[in-house]
Amino acid sequence: MPASYAELEHRYAELRDLSIAQSLAGWDQEVMMPRGGAEARAHTLAALAGVVHSRTTDRSLVRLVEGLHRRQRRLTPQRRRAVELARRAVLKATRIPEELARELALAESRGLETWRQARQARDWKRFAPALRHMVELKREVAKRSAAAARRERGAPRGAARGRAAKPSLYDELLDDYEPGATVAALDPLFARLRAFTTPLVEAVVKSGVKVSLRPLVGAFDIERQREFAREIVVAMGIDLERARLDLSTHPFCSGLHPGDVRMTGRYDPADLRGGLFGAIHEAGHGLYEQGLDPRRARSPLGGAVSMAIHESQSRLWENLVARSRPFWSWALPRLRRRYPWMVGVTVDAMWCAANAVRPSFIRVEADELTYNLHIVLRYEIERDLIEGRQQVSDLPERWNEDLHALLGIRPKHDAEGVLQDIHWAMGLFGYFPTYTLGNLYAAQFMAAARQQIRGLDGRVARGELVVLRDWLRRKIHGHDQLYTAEQLVKRVTGKALSTEAFERHIRAKVQAIYDV
Questions:
Q1: Mean pLDDT of all residues in 36-49
Q2: Which whole number is the average pLDDT over 212-232?
Q3: Which of 182, 346, 409, 506 has the fewest CB atoms nearer than 10 Å to its CB?
Q4: Catalytic residue among 282, 318, 368, 382
Q5: Which of 205, 290, 261 is closest to 477 using CA atoms?
Q6: DSSP calls for 384-422
C-alpha cells in the first residue's frame, strides 16, 4: 500500500470515529436525554461539528487527497473509488467555513427541541422563527457550495451544470443525500408519478369499494405491539446483539457501525399500523447497516451508497414484504396469539387492510399508492424555500392548499400538517426526494429478487425471511460504496432505474383490491 494512501486511511478513520460521536450524541438527544439537557447538547454537537469540519478541511489532508487524485491511475480500482469519495467529502467541507458549520449544528439541535414543543402544542408560530433561521443557513450553504463548485470547474458564473439549462440552488442540497441528483431530473420524474398516481387514487375513491381497517385498528396493547415488532424484525434477520430497539417522537435508524445499530419507533394503542410498519421500515435500514462490511467501516469506502438506496431497503421490507399475502400467512397466527380478539381475522382481510388506499394527513402512515404524493408536496415546498420562491411565514397555508389539491383533504391542525415531520427542524433539506427514489429502487430490486430466488413468496409464507436478507446482503449491503447508485441498480437488476417496476407493482395491487 502506498504510504500516502495509508495516511489517507488513517486520517479518514479518525474522521469516522468523530462522526460516530456526533451520531451517538444525536441518538441520545432523541431517545435518552432529559429535556433539561437540550441547550448543553446543542453546544456539544456544535463543538463536535467544528472539530470534524476543522479536521476535514485541514490543509495537509486536502493536499494528500489532491495528490492521490492526480496519481489515481497508479491505484487499484477500489482505491481510486476511495480517493474519489474522500475528495468529494473534503471538497464539500472546504466550501463551508467552520463558523457556519458550527452555527448549523447549533441550529439543528435547538430546532429539534423547538419543533418537538411546537408539534406537541400544535403551534406553528412557535417553530417558525427556528425554521426561518434554518432556511437562511441552508441557503447560505447552497450558495457557497455552488460558487465554490463553479470555481473548481473553472466555469463562469451562471454556467450550466450537466444537462440542466439553469442549475437550481437546491441541487447543492440534493447532492448531499443523493449524489448527482438535480431538480432538472427530479421535476419530470415527480410529474410522471403524479400523472400516474392521481387517476388511480380518483378511481379508487369512485369505485365505492370499502376496505375494512378493523384488522389493524382496535385495542392493541403497546407492550404486546413491541413484542410482536421485535419478533418480526428478528425473523427479518436483525441481530439484536448488534442492535437496539427504542422509542422516540419520530422513528429513525442510526447506524453507528455494523456492530452498533440503533432503531427507534412509536406506537399507538388504537392502531397497529404506525408501530408495526414503522418498526419493519427502520429494521430495513438496520439490516443495511448490519450488512455493511465492518472492514471498511472506518475507510472512505464504508457506508451506504446513497440515501435513496438506503430508503429502498426500508421501503422494500415495509411495502413489498410486510404488506404482502405471503407475509401475513406467516405473521397473522403470531399476531393472534397476542390479541385473541383477532381469531376471526383472515389473511385476505389483513392483506386488504394493510393495502387500503385512503388519503391521509400523516406521511409515515400513508398507504403505498398515495405516499409519493406526500413526497411531491414536501419536495416542491422545500425546493421553493431554497430557491427563494416560498416564505416560511406562509408555509401552513401553502401546505394545506397543496395537500388539498393532491389528496382532497385539509389538516385540522398543524401537527397533522406542516409540523408533522422532523426533517426541516434538523436541516435535512434535500432528503425527502430519496423516499420516492427509494420506492422505485425497492420495486426494481424486489422484481429481481423474485427472478433470482426460487420460490421466494413461498419461503416468505413459511417465515424464511432471512433468505431475502441474505440476497440483499450479497447484492447490495456488502458492497458499501464501491459502486454508485446508478452502477449498483444496473448490476443487481440489469436495468437503469425507472418507474416501470413500481407502476406495475402498485397497479396490480390496486386492481386486485379495488377492481379498477
A1: 96
A2: 97
A3: 346
A4: 282
A5: 290
A6: HHHHTSS-GGGHHHHHHHHHHHHHS---SSGGGTTTS-S
